[in-house]
Amino acid sequence: MRTAFDFSPLYRSSIGFDRVFDLLENASRTPSVDNWPPYDIARTGEDAYRITMAVAGFGQEELSIVHEPNMLVVSGERTTEDNGDYLHRGIAGRPFERRFELADHVKVTGAGLVNGLLTINLQRQIPEEMKPRKIEIGSSSGKAGSRIEAGTAKAVGKQIADKQAA
Predict the structure, then answer these.
(1) Is the pLDDT of residue 163 over 70?
(2) Dihedral (CA of 53, 57, 60, 65) sign
(3) Is the dihedral of CA 134, 135, 136, 137 positive or negative?
(4) Are residues 115 and 99 in the same domain?
(5) Which residue, 7, 27, 78, 108, has fewest beta-carbon neighbours within 10 Å?
(6) Residues 100, 153: one domain?
(7) Is 132 contained in some domain?
(8) Is omega for the bond preceding 37 within 30 degrees of 0, making it cis?
């Protein structure tokens, strides 16, 4: 059973969240996808993540990792065909393509293949101009001056906490 959600009331009270609503709409439209190859997603730090995929039977040259804007595409296709006389074939070797939606400013920092596990490391790297900054309010003496100071998110958060505690 599929339920359609109407996000139009949220459009009236939000600015700049169009991509989030598009992701939600696309997720509700997407039919159930193949669950192969299995994978794990782990948070390894405040802004660091790791994707681990079980790709038994695939060599390094048979796997492809492509980082597109806000999308990571991992695909694999076996180039060699083993035509043995199998009594049971349980190791899947079919081609696959797995897509991961990425948040803004998430970059791939490395990938490795060890013991049939493909590991992809990701890091969110927010540009300095996108980090929070403190904006001072000028006096009302006829001259509306404002000064912007660059600061880190922790410094701004501490200032807000100090004001709330006072």
Answers:
(1) no
(2) negative
(3) negative
(4) yes
(5) 27
(6) no
(7) yes
(8) yes
What pLDDT digit, counting tens, does each position of 40-58 carry?
Answer: 999 999 989 999 999 988 8
pTM of the model: 0.62
Q: What residue has token string 């922790």?
A: 154
Residues 107 and 161 in one domain: no
Q: How far apart are CA 125 and CA 107, in angstroms?
A: 7
